[in-house]
Specification:
There is one protein chain. By secondary structure, the protein is mostly helical. The chain contains nine helices and nine strands. Among the domains are: about 180 residues, no CATH class; about 45 residues.
């Protein structure tokens, strides 16, 4: 008798190689044994069909944390109740991925997928998932926990994708009361006993059916061919990426070299301009110092000239005063001489004629001479004293 793992793998391989019609589960058999049990599904109780679920149209991600966070935004969502889970359709997944789902990525739990998506996933991961589920302390009916619309509580594929809430309640009660807990498997006492048990299981296993083996090999060839094509495509993509990166690096390197050369040339040009400006600044500074020295010298010369001019003005004023004094003195002498000469001439001419009047005239002539007349002043401030013209300074000197 074959193990359940081999039966599941061969059954799901057949399902994956034949796209599922509406009555897919009705004809699925392995070695003459039907994988679906009519007695296990209670069709008299209420059930929820796959097409009755709310279609998920939110943000999709292969990260389970991000996807579940987006799913929780759906109204009335309860991760413990499959009846509230939204449905991810194949069309929606194709639009999100940009291509058909190939079954390589792991499907996130607590959300419902269309049966075709589940087929592709299990065709790639069923053997590994079966080994994990059959480990110590694991639930052998893991299929129901992950895909409750495609499997019943016993792990058997359903004839139609649906969910039966009463079935889930029965399982919950059985888990609480431990009525359906299988007896623990007897652990081998040593590695040798474990090896003997494995040999005994292998000896009791019936030889594989030739037809199933042929189908299995053919499916494996198809899988290998698909994997090889995907690998070739991936290698081509990687090679193209490497070529793109290499071209980008070469272009960046060429741009970097050109930029460095331009930068060096720009630095040299700026340095030359800075040197010229420094030389001009030094020359200008020297010229400024020279001009400052010349200005200082001229200030000193102007100061000396001002002092000389002031001295010349003082000397001129003193000379004018002396000249004025001399002129006045000369004028007085001339007037006195003229008066004396006139008096003498008059006395000589009239002395004899006047007689007694001469005595009176003498008395009159003995009087002091009249004061000199007031000097006339010109319009420019010069005093007219005889033939001399003396110019007054504004300072009064």
């Amino acid at each position: 008798m074959r193990s359940s793992q081999e039966q599941d793998y061969e059954g799901w391989t057949w399902l994956y190689s034949h796209p599922p019609p509406a009555s897919l589960f009705s004809d699925l058999q392995v070695n003459g044994e039907c994988l679906c049990s009519d007695a296990l599904e209670d069709w008299t109780t209420g059930h929820i069909l796959l097409e009755d679920l709310l279609k998920y149209e939110g943000v999709f991600s292969w990260d389970p944390v991000l996807l579940q966070r987006s799913i929780r935004e759906v109204s009335d969502y309860n991760e413990k109740d499959p009846a509230t889970w939204p449905l991810v359709t194949e069309t929606f997944l194709r639009d999100c991925l940009g291509m058909d789902y190939d079954g390589q990525q792991h499907l996130t739990t607590v959300i419902v997928y269309e049966t075709s998506i589940v087929f592709r996933y299990l065709s790639q991961h069923l053997p590994f998932l079966g080994i994990q589920a059959n480990g110590p302390g694991r639930d052998p009916n893991w299929r129901y926990h992950r895909f409750p619309y495609q499997y019943d509580v016993t792990g058997t594929p359903r004839r139609q994708a649906l969910f039966i809430p009463a079935e889930a309640r029965k399982r919950s009660i059985a888990e609480v009361t431990r009525t359906s807990q299988p007896p623990p498997a007897k652990q081998p006492e040593s590695a040798e006993n474990a090896y003997k048990q494995d040999l005994q299981v292998l000896s009791e296993t019936e030889p594989n059916n030739t037809t199933d083996l042929t189908v299995h090999k053919e499916d494996l060839r198809k899988t290998l061919a698909t994997a090889a094509a995907e690998m070739t495509k991936a290698c081509k993509i990687v090679a193209d990426l490497h070529e793109t990166v290499r071209n980008s690096e070469d272009e960046l390197r060429s741009h970097t070299v050109g930029a460095e050369q331009d930068l060096c040339a720009l630095k040299a040009k700026h340095q030359s301009e800075v040197d010229v400006l420094k030389e001009r600044a030094v020359t200008a500074e020297e010229k400024v110092k020279e001009l400052e020295q010349q200005l200082k010298t001229r200030d000193e010369q102007l100061k000396m000239r001002d002092e000389e001019l002031a001295g010349a003005r003082r000397e001129t004023s003193q000379a004018n005063r002396r000249i004025l004094k001399m002129g006045m003195e000369r004028m007085g002498v001339i007037n006195t001489a003229k008066h004396a000469e006139a008096k003498k001439r008059k006395a000589t001419d009239d002395g004899a004629a006047f007689g007694v009047q001469g005595i009176a005239k003498k008395t009159k002539d003995a009087e002091p001479p009249p004061p000199p007349k007031k000097k006339k002043v010109a319009g420019d401030g010069t005093a007219l004293v005889g033939p001399l013209i003396v110019k007054k300074t504004r300072s009064g000197q």
